[in-house]
Amino acid sequence: MLRNALCRLSSKTGRVCAATSGVVRALFSTGPQQKHGTFYEFRTYFIRPDQNSAFLKLTNEKIHLRTAHSELLGYWSVEYGGLNQVFHIWKYDSFSQRAGVRAALSQEPKWLGEYISKAIPMLTTQDNEVTYLVPWSQIQSPPKEGGTYELASFQMKPGGPAVWGEAFQASVCARATPGYGHLVGVFHSEFGPLNRVHALWWYESPDHRAAVRHEAHEDARVVAAVRESVSHLQSQSSKLMFPCSFSPLK
């Protein structure tokens, strides 16, 4: 029996002894744990087709009212994989910080009057997702400005990183290590669809992406790693995006 093999039970209380309770918890761990509270909010706005240019112009003019309150990682216009969309990533140190930011913005006259009141009628839908950087990833800025980004999203089977984490990491690293694209960061969803992982890549251009993807598909190491990871995959999607002029990541 697992209980008999790993721990001693008190005859009076029946509780697991302190010396071995950590071992039991480790067996049921769902994978590497986050060591800090920093998270990244993914926000996707769907724009009315006739208002796309106007929305981007307004945001360019007024985004400073928003970035005065918290850090913007990047802001992109979606070119392929979703029409009339913008995608942006905001960094927070904690949920309490985000709550404070949202409260402050709700009382900011210029933000409400000069941006929100004008932007909201231009949108059809908004969506957000809370993500963490996976423990083995860090934000890596592109080597230069002026490229294009791909947000590759993977809906993995239920079970979490304990089930598919190693295989997914191997498949991503098999592409990133030889230079088949510049890996900006890998994110794991916390709120929103669960068991979803996002890989944000940078390329010099859409044609550069097409060329290196072709090379990667001819690399036996990449093919083997992807085959292992795909056994845990339910679905995947991607967006090709161009950074806006005011985006910190360009």
From TrEMBL:
PANTHER family xref list: NIPSNAP-RELATED (PTHR21017), PROTEIN NIPSNAP HOMOLOG 3B (PTHR21017:SF19)
One Gene Ontology biological process: mitophagy
Span of domain NIPSNAP: 40-138, 149-248
Organism: Gadus morhua
Protein name per UniProt: Nipsnap homolog 3A (C. elegans)
Pfam families registered for this protein in UniProt: NIPSNAP (PF07978)
Domain of life, source organism: Eukaryota
Record InterPro entries: Dimeric_a/b-barrel (IPR011008), NIPSNAP (IPR012577), NipSnap_domain (IPR051557)
Family affiliation: Belongs to the NipSnap family.
An example Gene Ontology CC term for this record: mitochondrion
